[in-house]
Amino acid sequence: MSEANTRWGILYCPKGYGSKQREKIQRVLDDRHVEYDFVQSESADSVERLMNMLIHNGYKTIIVAGGDSALNDAVNCLMQVERQVRDEIALGVIPNGLLNDFARYWDFKENNVEQTVDWLVKHRVRTVDLGCVRYVNKKGEHCHRYFLNCVNVGLIADIMNLRRQTRSLLGSRTLSFIVSIFLMIFHRMDYKMHVKINNSTVDRKVMTMCIGSGPGYGQTPSAVPYNGMLDVSMVYHTGILQVFAGLWLLITGRFLNHRAVHPYRTREVRVEEAKHALVGVDGRLLGIPVGPYTITVEQEVINFLIPD
Question: Which of 192, 226, 244, 276 has the fewest Cβ atoms nearer than 10 Å?
Answer without folding.
Answer: 276
